[in-house]
Amino acid sequence: MAQKPMGMHPEDIKAALRKMFGSLAAFSVMIGRDSRAVSKTIATPGYSVPIEREIAKALKVAVKAIWPDRYHSDGTPVSFVVPRIPTALRGSAHRQNEVAA
């Protein structure tokens, strides 16, 4: 069975940023984002690719080295958006207003 690619542990990322900037909130504000943006980005795949790049730049490490499961081999981000398939009936299949089913 193939092993999942291992990057940096989220706590290691947080510890490195805290050593450099004091807190994750301080780093978030420094890069012009909401105070919780960095912690959300670390915890949630696909939350913000630009913030992932800012984190990598601050740590002086390639983004793919930090999160290999979030990026393809060519360096493009993996899409975490799930395509929406409508399950509801459309148009004429719905009961019309004031008409009994």
What would your notes on this structure say?
The chain is mainly α and 101 residues long. The chain has a domain at 10-70: 434 Repressor (Amino-terminal Domain), CATH 1.10.260. The chain has helices at residues 10-21, 24-30, 37-43, 49-59, 63-66. Helix 3 crosses helix 4 (49-59). The longest helix has 12 residues, at 10-21. The mean pLDDT is 85. Residues 8-78 form the Ner winged helix-turn-helix DNA-binding domain. Belongs to the ner transcriptional regulatory family. This is Ner winged helix-turn-helix DNA-binding domain-containing protein. Keywords: DNA-binding, Transcription, Transcription regulation.
Task: Write a brief structural summary.
InterPro entries: Lambda_DNA-bd_dom_sf, Ner_HTH_dom. With 101 residues, this protein is mostly helical.
Which CATH architecture of the domain at 10-70 would you pick?
Orthogonal Bundle
Low-confidence blocks of residues: none
Strand content: under 5%
Terminal Cα separation, in Å? 53 Å
